[in-house]
Please model this.
Amino acid sequence: MGSFSIWHWLIVLVIVMLVFGTKKLRNIGTDLGGAVKGFKDGMKTPEEAEEKKEQIQSAAASTEKTVDVQAKDLNK
Model:
């Protein structure tokens, strides 16, 4: 009686989905993920935050220099 099987959890999941709907659950997950990311960013020291900001800026600058080309097969 103290342990739940996978079937119990599946039934609970179906009931929760019926009550709240998938869209609301997806929004809750997105909000929770954003909160965790914000918490992690808040726990970083100012030096780490500055380094990450510089990395993001350098990555953005390198993508601006990227040239998109299309390869063609010359053997046809």
